[in-house]
Amino acid sequence: MGEHSGKGWRHCVVVGAGLLGASLAGAGKARGLFVRTTGVGRSAANLATARARGFLDDTTSDLARACADADLVVLATPVRTALEQLAEVAANTPASCVITDVGSVKGPIVAEARRLGLAGRFLGAHPLAGKAESGAGAADVDLFRGATVVLTPCHVTSARLRERIRMLWERLDARVLEMSAAEHDEALATSSHLPQMVAYILAAAADGAPARERIVALAASGFRDTTRLAASDPDMWTDIAQLNRAALLSAIDDFAALWAKLRKAVDEEDEAALRELIAAARRLRKAVAP
After folding, report:
1. How far apart are CA 201 and CA 195, in angstroms?
2. Residue 6 confidence (pLDDT) above 80
3. Which pLDDT does position 5 carry in this prediction?
4. Same domain, 125 and 256
5. Count of domains for the chain
6. What is the CA radius of gyration of the chain?
7. How far apart are CA 85 and CA 175, in angstroms?
8. What is the reported pLDDT for 119?
9. Contact 38, 92 (CB under 8 A)
10. Domain boundaries, position 192
11. Is 214 found in the same domain as 91?
12. Is the domain of 124 the same as that of 247?
């Protein structure tokens, strides 16, 4: 299925040559996994950067043409755009072509793949890797080294397809986990999507405060670190919030319940309750970053 000498892929098409897409193309070329790479995108300048850096062999804005002889297509556009592009990719790729993505919400695109009859050749993936910078200029052939990549097969995904996509990411030096799309989206709602929303709201609260100018003047590393995510692309995160709505709402509700508990402890000067909350927070932090 879409393989090159049992070791890689003859023609990899990356749709969206931003940080993740260009890094994947470059990493695959550097490790001999891709014989040829084509980047599809709207920004000629970004595509030119990826090509000049040696990550892409060809570039185009014509998705259908690029897919005509692909044996691997990676959707690396924002989650809603990838969802919309899936049908066009399906219609213009050979029946042997494998399709995957790198989006941070899996439920909708896995469901759409099944609706389109792609369950036998689509396998969703989510590399938990990134940088503050974006675009092909920030791409890095070692971006995925040591990163966790989640694959989200469904019950009809073949063992062979799972093996091929797992091999791809493992050859890029990533650690691969598998879980259902629902399990992934539920976990990411708390580990990724909720922190993003908290950063936005914390920064928005400071922006709307009467003492805004003094807050800005006195903002130290704690505030800057906590609100770093608030600089993230609003279009991307609006899509993520909408597409992972149910899981994110559940995470927000759990957060709100603990926030109310914290407020009550502060209001009532309940030292024991405060210490209990802080201890739980420190315990989790040590588990995440020992």
Report:
1. 10
2. no
3. 44
4. no
5. 2
6. 21
7. 28
8. 87
9. no
10. 184-288
11. no
12. no
What does the pLDDT look like over 92-133, one tens digit per residue? 999 999 999 999 999 999 999 999 999 899 999 999 998 767
Whether residue 208 is found in the same domain as residue 85: no
Side-chain-facing half-sphere of 188: CA atoms under 13 Å: 25
Name the token pair of 130.
């990134």
Establish if 3 belongs to a structural domain. no
Domain boundary among 146, 179, 212: 179
- Does residue 275 share a domain with residue 133? no
Clarify whether residues 145 and 73 are in a common domain: yes
Instruction: Answer yes or no: is pLDDT of 41 > 80.
Output: yes
Average pLDDT rounded to a whole number, residues 37-49: 96
Please state, for a pLDDT cut of 90, what percent of the chain lies above it: 92
Instruction: Report d(CA 128, CA 102) in Å as an integer.
Output: 9
Among 77, 68, 103, CA closest to 22: 77
Q: What percent of the chain has pLDDT over 70?
A: 97
Amino acid, res. 250: S
Say how many residues make up the chain: 290
- What does the DSSP assignment read for 121-153? TEEEEEEE---SS-SGGG--TTTTTT-EEEEE-
